[in-house]
Amino acid sequence: MATLLAPEDFSPGEDAMALNKAFEGWGTDEKTIIWILGHRNADQRKQIRLAYQEIYLEDLIKKLKYELSGDFERAVCHWILDPVEREAVLAYEAIIKNYRPDYRVILETALTKSAEELLTVKRTYQFLYKRSLEEDVASHTAGDMRKFLVAVVSVYRYEGEEIEEEVAHSEANILGDEIQGGGGSGGGCGGGALKGAEEIIRILSTRSKPQLLATFNYYKQIHGTSITKSLGGDPADEFSAALRAAIQCIKNPKRYLQKVVSHSMNRVGTEEDALSRVIVTRAEKDLKEMKDVYLEKTGRSLDDAVASETTGDYKAFLLTLLGNQDYF
Amino acid sequence: MALSDEFQALTKSFSGFGVDEKSMISVLGKWHKDDIKSYRKESPHFVQDDRLFEKWVDPRVAFLEHEFLRFKNAVVLWTMHPWERDARLMKEALDGQAYGVIIEVACTRSSEELLGARRAYHSLFDHSIEEDVASRVNDSHRKLLVGLVSSYRYEGTKVQEAIAKSEAKILFAAKKNADKKNPIEDEEVVRIVTTRSKPHLKAIFKHCKEINEDVDDESILAKTMQCLCTPQTYFSKVLDASLCHGADENTKKALTRVIVTRADEEDMKAIKEEYHKQHGVSLSKNIDDVVNGNFKDFLLTLIARGD
């Protein structure tokens, strides 16, 4: 369920005018921006953008980029986008903007969606950037990471519920061979280097999700430990980390995203991009369930965590998206 | 017609590319038992059995079956939805390890057409084509084939010329190095060929030709580039091979496949022109000479559409 609280009745024209008023003068009235935009759903935000363009002959997003700054600005500018457009923009920024592409964003984009949803994101990406998502991912990555990420964004997975038990069993064994090759003998030894990557990439990036879940179950049965544990925890090995992230995301997307959020607030200094990304992309979908998972796993409410780890307008905005009415 | 001429006519109608129904009807329809018996004794399609009767040679019956089925196969393929058509063609090619056909379908269709075929594949075979190709192709072709069937290329005209130039050098270098490393196992080659847009690849192809005249050869990479950049050249070659005397079944099947799948496309006009350019005769004339019966008439009608 969504955490976003948006009124049934609203006037895009009035909102556009109120926003424009918030931009006027010396500073910016961030509270109004948060109050309005933080309480509008995708369709309403679209209408506001159109109204703003009509009345003021300006792109609202450009205006927001100009008037706001920092994490707050990034969060609001992502929030205001239409959800599919947002996914394409986040993917683009993850690939192009940094020195090294943020594989987590690419995996989230590809694996938390149905096959058709991913397709829509890819079409939007092509429309916005005049290139395909695949070619950009491919040309900015190398080696096993490239093979994996390109395969994961290219696949059009079969979405039936059927499972082939024999295949799941044999592929669990194949995975075991590739993973356990470096570590020690027998089950339970994580942290060894992968013997190879071909088969694990093939299986993870082509099999249907139900098929993969069956395979992971067999893996645990055969090797006595979960596949993610077997892949070890050497943080320097980015490729293994990407594999683990992908597997966790496939097994339980909500739990995976909850972990992303937890980690983002775990370190010295919060990783705002990751925190914003999850909250902004899930506020209209299933952030409520994620809050439940967060509480269950950490013993703390997500609202409390965000309130203590972030500050200022950025904090107010996130808390609004989380469904807090009484923050003001 | 004298009996010996009729014998010849009948033998011909049993032996060619497609069957000559009219000839069979007019000859066989009026023969007496004795004429037929004489035919059996003389014809290479029959052999004397120990128990004193002339028996059909089994391989000849199988051959006839293929030839009779050509028209039916063409009709069924033609009436099929293009998505189902392409999905079935790729499945059959995968089962028969005819990787050239997989490359042909994956590279000569538009992004949306290929996507449609992938959807149909889900419905027909309860798997994605990616997982089937990935799990069943175990040799050097795997990376290329999986990449090609998974592609969803950008279809706009915008091309980054500088990048095209540098990627042409990469492809060229891989070709030169072919005796040490198979180009289709080169990561960069696979990246370029399976993710770049067709206009971009055409620009690369142009640069490659500038670096070195001899770009066309029989390698898989060359075939792939041909399908992506100059499909009419590729199709013209395949059609010509299918019409050669003594071609094997896989090569002959291409005639139906190419004509049925390209008949409604812009391609067919370009293919006919290219064919004429390459071989000095029109495609229709060659088909008329080599192919028989209803099968021939159907193909000629398909080719003539849009004229």
List the helices and strands and how they pair.
The complex is a heterodimer of chains A (328) and B (307).
Chain A (H helix, E strand, L loop, with lengths): L11 H12 L6 H8 L4 H15 L3 H8 L2 H10 L3 H15 L5 H9 L3 H15 L3 H7 L3 H12 L10 H16 L17 H9 L2 H15 L3 H4 L7 H14 L1 H14 L5 H11 L4 H12 L3 H8 L2 H10 L7
Chain B lengths: L2 H13 L5 H8 L4 H10 L3 E3 L5 E3 L1 H22 L2 H14 L3 H10 L2 H15 L3 H8 L5 H8 L11 H16 L10 H9 L2 H14 L8 H10 L1 H12 L6 H14 L4 H13 L3 H8 L2 H12 L3
Helix pairs in contact in B: 1-2, 4-15, 4-18, 5-6, 5-7, 5-8, 6-13, 8-9, 9-11, 10-12, 13-14, 14-15, 14-16
What can you tell me about this protein's structure?
The complex is a heterodimer of chains A (328) and B (307). Chain A has helices at 12-23, 30-37, 42-56, 60-67, 70-79, 83-97, 103-111, 115-129, 133-139, 143-154, 165-180, 198-206, 209-223, 227-230, 238-251, 253-266, 272-282, 287-298, 302-309, 312-321. By secondary structure, chain A is mainly alpha-helical. In chain A, α2 runs parallel beside α20 (312-321), α5 packs parallel to α17 (272-282) and α15 crosses α16 (253-266). Chain A starts with 11 loop residues before the first helix and ends in a 7-residue tail after the last helix. Chain B is mainly alpha-helical and 307 residues long. Chain B has a two-stranded antiparallel ribbon with strand order 1-2. In chain B, a hairpin with a 5-residue loop joins β1 (46-48) and β2. In chain B, α5 (82-95) packs parallel to α8 and α10 packs across α12. At the A-B interface, α8, α9, α10 and α12 of A face α7, α8, α9 and α11 of B.
